[in-house]
Specification:
Blueprint lengths: L11 E3 L10 E6 L9 H15 L7 E5 L3 H13 L3 E6 L4 H9 L3 E5 L8 H14 L5 E3 L9 H14 L6 E5 L4 H13 L4 E7 L34 E5 L1 H15 L5 H17 L4 E6 L16
Helix pairs in contact: 1-2, 2-3, 5-6, 7-8
């Protein structure tokens, strides 16, 4: 057995205190149970394994990627286990815990400064172009997560886990959009089993481009790149909910203090939106969402750092 075999099969637990009476029940998929504390372990393994299998990543080659952190940590974990060199392009807009974790696993980092301190379209595009230049080196394979469809089967497998854990009873599924890969893979498989399941996409209120509004700077790491991502397609979601950075952080802190679920800002956004959907659907329904990553990744950030 390899350490990579520990990815997946995460638990699904109900919220017991945040959900008001007469709302639908909310179940949270604890993706922070994956080895690096993030759902991105699934996609990182899928991208690297697929590239190895078809020869895009050859023996002795290296991997290059741009990332807000969690994908980079997951790639660093997978590449360390497979003894593959990794070069990551990231930014000081993202937590030092993520950058330190990548470095500890052996990744080489190139930092792109963020003038606003947050995620913006300009920052994302600069990171992508930096990765593109680095990937021109001989033997490099660029995973290019925004355009990589190899991730979809890994999230379809996650949807099967949810189906099994809920006995197929899912009224709505709520997930925030970063690359769009998780929402696309999960929604496709959930709808294949039940075309009545309601798919709800979540995006930062400050950069609600999927909702047709202007891009802006926000603090929900790993989400809302500031443009419509290639893996997003028309009709992928039945509706889009926007959540501000402040509301996402408040909800994440409530999850920690009132439910004992210690997760990041994107999880706070997921649960904030899920609470709205649960109130609308009412009792007798089930809303499923995702604890995207661990709060341990954000101890130095405004989410959990002492004022």
């Amino acid at each position: 057995m390899s350490v990579l075999d520990t990815i997946g099969r995460t638990r699904l637990v109900p919220l017991r205190h945040l959900v008001p009476a007469r709302s639908a029940r909310i179940l949270v998929k604890l993706e922070y149970e994956n080895p690096t504390g993030s759902m991105k372990d699934r996609m990182a393994l899928a991208m690297v394994s697929a590239a190895e299998a078809d020869g895009r990543l050859r023996p002795g080659g290296s991997v290059v990627e741009y990332t807000g952190g969690s994908t980079g940590v997951s790639l660093a974990f997978v590449c360390a286990a497979k003894r593959i060199p990794l070069h990551i392009v990231t930014s000081d807009a993202f937590s030092s815990e993520k950058r330190n974790h990548m470095a500890a696993l052996g990744a080489r980092l190139t930092l792109v400064p963020s003038p606003t301190g947050g995620t913006t379209k300009a920052l994302t595009l600069e990171m992508i172009e930096t990765a593109r230049r680095l990937a021109a080196a001989p033997g490099s394979y660029w995973t290019d997560q925004f355009n990589n469809r190899d991730v979809l089967p890994s999230y379809e497998k996650m949807a099967e886990e949810i189906r099994e854990q809920t006995d197929g009873r899912v009224s709505a599924f709520v997930q925030i959009v970063g690359t769009g890969g998780s929402l696309r893979g999960l929604s496709t498989r959930l709808r294949a089993h039940d075309d009545g399941v309601r798919i709800v996409a979540v995006e930062p209120e400050e950069s609600a481009v999927l909702s047709g509004r202007p891009s802006g700077s926000h603090g929900i790491e790993g989400t809302g790149p500031g443009f419509v991502v290639p893996l997003w397609t028309e009709g992928l979601a039945d509706e889009i909910q926007t959540v501000s950075t402040a509301e996402a952080m408040t909800t994440a802190r409530r999850l920690a203090r009132e439910e004992g679920l210690f997760a990041g800002t994107s999880t706070g956004a997921n649960v904030a939106a899920a609470l709205r959907i649960a109130a609308r659907l009412g009792s007798g329904h089930t809303v499923v969402t995702v604890a995207v990553d661990s709060g341990m990744k954000y101890l130095s950030t405004p989410l959990y750092a002492p004022a």
